Amino acid sequence: MKNVDSYQCKIYNQSGELLLTNAGDVKGDYAYMWDGSPDSYYPSGSYRYEVTFKNYHGASASTSGVVDYYPYYCPSDFQTDILTAESETNKPVISPNPTDENSTVTSDSKILHIEKFDVSSRLLLSEYPKSNSYTIKANGFSKGIYLVRTTTEDGVYVDRLMVK
Given this model, what pLDDT does residue 135 score? Predict the structure, then answer.
């Protein structure tokens, strides 16, 4: 479906009980479905999902399936700052994402420190580029989702990087 601009997602446990309903906007080709709340924590296991996408013409398309979930635990010193809408415009961009080779983190302000963590909270990369861009090499990393924490002159930002 073209021009998708919103979604609604429902998550069910193995007993069919509705655990979570989430809706929001699709920006670019991504939608982040976690609100950051500790109340949305669920144990490892298989969950059924139903997602409906809509576009601005009113057309919709739905899909469903089963996903295996494994929670990610941030290290105790892992800090994320609450960003204002103004600072969000200066947010670093990771591109391409997802990737199977290299991704470049670019920022309007100087990147002071960049870190890459795996889902086990292990620090895999720690660099101090002191420039407006930094290339993360994906070769040598397993397929999966990583967290990239970028410290710039404007603040600290955390993004996901998917290696395919």
Answer: 92
